[in-house]
Write a structure and sequence with these properties.
- There is one protein chain.
- By secondary structure, the chain is an all-alpha fold.
- The chain has two domains: about 5-25 and about 150-220, Helix-hairpin-Helix base-excision DNA repair enzymes (C-terminal) (Endonuclease Iii, domain 2); about 30-150, Orthogonal Bundle (Endonuclease III, domain 1), CATH 1.10.340.
- The protein is built from twelve helices and no strands.
- Helix 8 (about 125-130) crosses helix 9 (about 135-150).
C-alpha cells in the first residue's frame, strides 16, 4: 500500500499527463484511425487497427513498424479481408519483422473473429484475452481501452519504467510480487473518462521522455510538479 498514490496525486497526474499528451503525441498511423466515429461498423475497424499495431509493436521499434503497418492496412483493412488471405501471403508481407509466430497467431485469431463472432471483435479485455490466440493481458487491455474505451490499465516495459521511477520501486520487475504492485498502480491511475488516451499517454511518456538511459527529465510533465521520486 505504501506505493499507492493519494487521490490528489492521481487527479494531478491524470490532468498533467493528458495535457502533455494532447500537445505532444506522435503522429502514428494507427492513431489516425481512432478519430473515426464510434459507430458500427467503424468500431470494428478501430479495434482491428489497434490490434494489428499492438501485435507488430511487440519486440519491434515504432520506426520499423510504421511502413509494415501501412502496407498491411492497405492490403487487409478489415478482419474479413485478412481472414480471406493465405498464411503464405501473410508471412510474405510480414517478412523482415521477425517473430513470425505473431503473424500466424494474428491470422488464426482473425479467422476466429470472422467464423465465430461474425466479424465483430470482442470489446472487453477479458473477452479478448479469453477468445483470441496470441492476445495476452497487456494486448487485450491495450485494444479494449484504446479502441473501445474500457477502463483497464496497460503495463508494458515503458509503463513499468515510469511507475517504478515515480514510486521509487527498486525490486526487480520480473518478480510476481513487483508485477502485481505495478498492475495495481496502473489500474489506480487510469483516467475513467479517457482510458485509451491515458494509457497511450503513459506509454508515450516512457518511450520519449522516461527512457531507460539518459531520461529527459526536463521535458517530463510529472517531475516538474513533484510527482516523480526519481526526477532530476
Amino acid at each position: 500500500l505504501r506505493h499507492r498514490f493519494t487521490a490528489k496525486d492521481v487527479a494531478q497526474l491524470r490532468q498533467s499527463l493528458l495535457c502533455w499528451y494532447d500537445a505532444n503525441k506522435r503522429d502514428l498511423p494507427w492513431r489516425r484511425l481512432l478519430h473515426l466515429q464510434i459507430t458500427e461498423p467503424d468500431i470494428n475497424v478501430r479495434g482491428y487497427a489497434i490490434w494489428v499495431s499492438e501485435i507488430m509493436l511487440q519486440q519491434t521499434q515504432v520506426k520499423t513498424v510504421i511502413s509494415y503497418y501501412n502496407r498491411w492496412m492497405q492490403k487487409w483493412p478489415t478482419v474479413h479481408s485478412l481472414s480471406a488471405a493465405s498464411l503464405e501471403e501473410v508471412n510474405s508481407l510480414w517478412s523482415g519483422l521477425g517473430y513470425y509466430s505473431r503473424a500466424k497467431l494474428l491470422h488464426e485469431a482473425v479467422k476466429k473473429v470472422v467464423d465465430e463472432f461474425g466479424g465483430n471483435l470482442p470489446q472487453t479485455a477479458e473477452q479478448l484475452r479469453g477468445h483470441l490466440p496470441g492476445v495476452g493481458r497487456y494486448t487485450a487491455c491495450a485494444i479494449s481501452s484504446i479502441a473501445f474505451n474500457e477502463r483497464v490499465p496497460v503495463l508494458d516495459g515503458n509503463v513499468m519504467r515510469v511507475l517504478t521511477r515515480l514510486r521509487e520501486i527498486g525490486s526487480p520487475i520480473q518478480l510476481n510480487t513487483t508485477n502485481a504492485v505495478l498492475w495495481d498502480l496502473a489500474e489506480q491511475l487510469v483516467d475513467p473518462n479517457r482510458p485509451g488516451d491515458f494509457n497511450q499517454a503513459i506509454m508515450e511518456l516512457g518511450a520519449v521522455c522516461c527512457k531507460p538511459k539518459q531520461p529527459n527529465c526536463s521535458e517530463c510533465p510529472l517531475g516538474e510538479i513533484g510527482l516523480c521520486g526519481a526526477y532530476e
